[in-house]
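Service request form, structural biology core

Requester: graduate student, group of Dr. S.
Request type: structure prediction, single chain
Budget code: on file
Notes: please return the result as structure tokens.

Sequence provided:
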Amino acid sequence: MSTTPRDRDASTGAPRFSGLAGVGPSPATKPRVRLGALAGVVGFLAFVELTSGILQGYYTPMLTDIARHLGVHDADVNWLEGTQLMLSALVVPAFAKLGDMFGHKRMLLWSTALTAAASLALPFTDSFAVFLVAWALQGFYVVWLPLEIAIIWSRSRGREGSSLLTARAAGILVAFLELGAILGALLGGRLIDLLPLQVVLLVPAAFVVACFFVVAFGVRETDLRPGGRLDLAGLVLVSLALIAFTGGLSLLRLNGPADPAAWIVTALGLALVVPFVLVELRQPDPLIDVRMFRSPALAPVFITAGLFGVSVLGAQAPLSTFARTDPEVYGYGLGTSGFTTSLIIGLYLVAMIAGALLFPKIARWTTPRITLIGAAGLVGVGYLLFLPLHESYAQVTANMMIAGVGSGALVAALPAAAASAAPAAQTGVATGLTNSVKTVGGAVASAAFGIALMHGATGAAAEGTAGSLAGYFTVWAICGVTALVAAALLCFVPKNAFTDGASARLPAAL
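Core staff response, request fulfilled:
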């Protein structure tokens, strides 16, 4: 179905989403969603996501060993996370756009090669500076999932039920991602007790090298490659904005809200968004088509991704520290050991796997839009339950599993929803934006939560290293409220968004 003038908004020129009479197609007309011919490519990409999960979980049990090997303080390990997050925010827009221009498989292959080279460098250096650079470059794996969703959407385009087919494939990929995180943590924790650190660090590198050959020989390139040129001016501006913004937030977390330099750098990052938008609006082939943020289907998805980043990226460290806090000393916490704390995180990841796999099934019974609203609502309810229920191991675990089901659904659904609602030539950019905006949301939350946990500490908490109970209440309340705000925003999305009927109307640009 082509987009006619009456299908476009008179004020913005963007496609108008007319919606359907009901909330979705009747059960009799809903397509049966089977992977069929896509099963092969999904299988290969599942191995890539398994490796991505291993990278994310493998190193956590050995961070203290890495610090000792490099001769640095435990606190310096935070630089590893910070530099990798910053690089992640920078590379996703560039690689997503390059994937739309020259091929998503090609960019997936390049990012895998860079990740493999960085992973192979880690075991062979005892210099903190070299290790830090290699660790940051290893962060190229963050572009894998957006590029994979773009590949699957391109392969499924034109098939019956392509939107739900993409969502189902995304759920499988996310399930393997979380499974990899669990296996990585268990494998890393076991091997570090048995083998020298250098040998242990070679294991994830071997997985990434295997991924390179899996992608090279198992994945076919997407057909839609419009070409064009990379918008270097836009890339420079968005990079400077992200570096300044995330850098300012890091300074706020380290130095506290009384540091004027941190606020100035953060404000500079926000201010640079204005020239970036002006430049992109004038570009015939922009790095990011900012007009997508005016789409009635895409804008709530991007906002939801940012709000979701608050909990999925910002709340995991506070969860761990709360569980480890000794209630006999501080009056709150669970006083768990490292292993029992990891069980909470493991069950949370299992719940995420369940949410990712359930999303396409529930979306087929209802609609993707309603399922997204429900997923965001589960995240909100899970975290708000912490306010009255946080005194026992069972309560904390139950809260996290409720939030985990919703989180898993959102991790799988948001890039798939963006792909189905984006113009054909902007699929990679749209899926990548969900990742970038989520990262920014997590960075904001990380700084805010760090300040909240330091503020209001009294008694033993003020003298020790534990956060304040008021700070934990603030963390849980923010995570719960932001998720419910996301659910409310998704209620305004057109009723047939993220479905085949909606995706059929896509023009070349918004």
